[in-house]
Amino acid sequence: MREIRDLDTDTLLSRMLIGLERFDPRVVELDNEQVSQAWLEDVGVGTWPIRVLIGHLADCELVLSHRCRRIIAEDNPTLNLWDEHAFIDGGLYGCTDGSNLLPPMGGDLAMIHTTRSWSIAMLMQLTDEQWNRQGMHPTNGPVTVREIVNYNCWHLERHAHFLNAKIEKLLGPIPEKTGCCGGGGGGCGCSEQGKGNDQQHEDGHEHGHNQGGGGCCSHDH
Prior knowledge:
Blueprint: H1 2-5, H2 9-18, H3 32-35, H4 50-73, H5 84-89, H6 105-123, H7 128-131, E1 134-137, E2 141-144, H8 145-171, H9 198-203
Antiparallel strand pairs: 1-2
């Protein structure tokens, strides 16, 4: 996050444009059993099924994009909260006992790409004043457009680390011929950030950051 905060806006937006390229491309080759598999904590790749992780990222792109748009359009709006754990428990991503909802992940991946591209097209037009406009997060206080965008950039990279680690457990290391393409190495910025409290960061125990107005994967979105 420190690295992201230090970027100029053009570099930040270029980094965000990478988006889905940070994901191991083999994610689209996984079957329903693989994407619905929960993980034990001692595996070290986070406990969420891949289907849940991807669905969560799609919802977060919508939430964070809408927050930016409200702050730009409205004077110091109070930002709404959302409970992402309720989305999981309610079966919106499948993987819930008794749920027959198994949405194809292609829609979630497309949502992440389209929403991020749509948001960046808007952000590219902002003045310095607009980047510094603020909204009020109910628990974390004032937050700027720039802070939300910083957080959005970090958030996808962070979860890409867990996604790619899960896929590697399922399929082995990514074949060299396919390149990194977001496989958690090179310039993706998540391989180093992924060290330390990896398990806790995915599952919402360590997401109480002020960036982005509330932190990810906690009740105060």
